[in-house]
Amino acid sequence: MLKARVKVTLKKSILDPQGSAAEKALKSMQYPVESVRIGKFMEVVLNEDDKDKAEKIMHEICQKLLSNPVIEDYSFELEG
Amino acid sequence: MLKARVKVTLKKSILDPQGSAAEKALKSMQYPVESVRIGKFMEVVLNEDDKDKAEKIMHEICQKLLSNPVIEDYSFELEG
Description:
2 copies of one chain form a homodimer. By secondary structure, chain A is an alpha+beta fold. Helices cover 35% and strands 39% of the residues of chain A. Chain A has 2 helices and 3 strands, in the order βαβαβ. The first copy, chain A, has helices spanning 17-28, 51-66; strands at 2-10, 33-46, 72-79. Chain A has a 3-stranded antiparallel sheet. Chain A is elongated and about 50 Å long. The interface between A and B is medium-sized, with 33 and 33 residues.
């Protein structure tokens, strides 16, 4: 079994209203915050021991279900 | 300026319906998935160059605004 830690973030050109709201709230609380961007973090446990196969599967899963390639980027790390 | 990459995950004992839905969908697509947990990923840029101060600020921000300590855990990495 391998565990994949996936980060899905909005592309830079896409507005992030959730992040802007957090940024404004933190600024109003006097924190020295420059910007906040909010994305998703997922942990996927795979029934697969071969790292190469797992990587291929994760790319498919990320593209098909875990991210929206039109507006989001993804990256992941596999750990055994 | 320092950038913090924050991961917020549901505590293990807390049900994750969003993750369960993704897990079921992936299983129905015949992917060898054991489990999926979904959390949040945030990038916070701080107007602060001192790593110790930035760490203290990030702990405060995470506890007060970015996570719900009752049901979520957080972790972050700072990079310069």
